[in-house]
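FAQ: What does the model actually see?

It sees only this:
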Amino acid sequence: MPEPPASAGPQGSSAENDSPGRLPQRNVLADDVYQILKENLLSRRIEPGSRLNLDQLARGLHVSNTPVRQALARLESDGLVTKEPYRGFAASPLLDSRTIAELYDFRMMIEPPTAARAARRRGEAAMLELETLCDPGQIEGLLADPAAQEVIGARDVDFHCGIAREAGSNVVLENLQTTLVQMRRYTIYHQHGAGERAWEEHRVIAAAIRAGDPEAAATAMSVHLTEGLDRLRQAIS
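And it is asked to produce this:
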């Protein structure tokens, strides 16, 4: 039997932590708590920089403190929360423009050669997955629905990680996943046609990988990252 939630402690600065939006499907599993908190951090339902009160989160999710504490530890490794000595956890603040540029520099170093390597391997199952993610009919419907921003942001992560997975480097995949999770808070697909352009660029990358053309795949990825940074800068300027 799970232990009952701890009694309420000092109130945190963010009242919305009491209302996570949905409840975990299995009350005692930290995995479900992790996913719920991650969704709320990425969507900014939990405000960047706000204190995370362990007791409040446990009460809102109808769980004990233990799975919440385990989930917060995982979210810290994702870069979505920070732990301050003697103060507990807080939602990570938004990245500044310099850090965003550095993350794109990092991606520029690893993703073009990763796309080239994927083009040399291009397994059929991986190609079908990438092409399904880029399917124009599905993308058009998601872009037309403002409520689907989180879904299409996750789809973007799946696309880039799918290329890294096909390239066969677990180190690249793990580091890219961490970077992309942090950047999902900056999804701008529903702004000024950014989504249409980004997914057209994705389709060019997928086509180059399908064709087995490493040089074209690397070039297409470089163009996509360069254009993506420009779009993000315009959106947050």
